[in-house]
Amino acid sequence: MAKNEVILIIGAKGQIGTELTVALRNKYGKDAVIATDLLEPNSSLLKDGPYMMLNVMEKLAIENIVTRYKVTTIYHLAAVLSASGEKKPSHAWSINMLGLMNVLDVAKIFGLKVFWPSSIAVFGPTSPKILCPQHTVTEPTTVYGITKFAGEQLCNYYHEQYGVDVRSLRYPGLISYTAKPGGGTTDYAVDIFHQALEKGNYTCFLKEETTLPMMYMADAVRAALELMEVPADRVKIRTAYNISAMSFSPKNLAAAINKHLPDFIMHYKPDERQKIADSWPRSIEFITATSDWGWQPQYDLHEMVADMLKHISKNAAC
Ligand code: SER
């Protein structure tokens, strides 16, 4: 990234945004990263640099920030996740699609570079379950997945038609200790750590054998930074790259936690999120990301569990 580049983060208070904002400020300097969200800043992390309120549905407001601060790159992270989207499909469609369209339009006008996260939710029951490849059947059955699939096509369209340098990753379930996710199907894999340490038990909303692709946030943030640093001619996929790090079921995760907390007990009470989880692949193949820009995950299940427990225990003690 050149010295005079300025980054705008939309959705900085979400699960990805909270950690990506810190990582980008560490890498490029705090004044080069403008964090924005719908919400008031309440975290010291987000106050440690420019922060303002922004609604991605207001294109003019995005344009004003871009012009005023000479923004060169947007990380657009604001979205309604899978389980929330099923409760309010038209709201999910508006935020996820029109929000992305606004960002891409602004990027087209001002010649900006864009990062936008896609998801394994682009896949559906007809996609391969094991090592789901980059190019395959994508027939999502959630409104969230439909918006991610359509969003990928829109990114590719803006790249092909208008030369917008937009880059994307199909994130698996993301696990982090800083900010909790909200309204996703993979959220159990974050909640479980808090409940295990606070109460010693957790009631999981997915069945014990439900295996899904997952990634620790440290890897997810690094993947975004690495993809955005790669020279444009090496970014061959302008929809979104498959990436993954590990796959596990609730039962596997409980067993890994039991190695540290032998008394921890898991109960199971599957709800409507089971159907969403059953529609997604169990594992993801990411050879294209590895060959195009060198993607390699660092954290496996056991390293992730050890790090999560260490940080959540430390935060609770503060
Ligand atoms: N973690 C997301 C969700 O569960 C998937 O991208 O909705």
Structural key phrases:
single chain, 318 residues, alpha/beta, Rossmann fold, UDP-galactose 4-epimerase, domain 1, 2 domains, three-stranded mixed β-sheet, 12 strands, globular, binds serine
Strand arrangement in the largest pleated sheet = 3-2-1-4-5-6-10
| CATH homology group of the largest domain | NAD(P)-binding Rossmann-like Domain
Termini Cα gap: 36 Å
- Are any ligands bound, and if so which? serine
Question: Can you tell me the number of structural domains?
Answer: 2
The helicity comes to 40-55%
Broad structural category: alpha/beta
* Element string (H = helix, E = strand): EHEHEHEHHEHEEHEEHEEHEHHH
Low-confidence stretches: none
Q: What Rg is obtained from the alpha carbons, in whole angstroms?
A: 19 Å
CATH topology of the largest domain: Rossmann fold
Mass-distribution shape: globular
Tally of DSSP helical segments: 12
Mean pLDDT: 95
For the sheet with most strands, the description reads:
7 strands, parallel
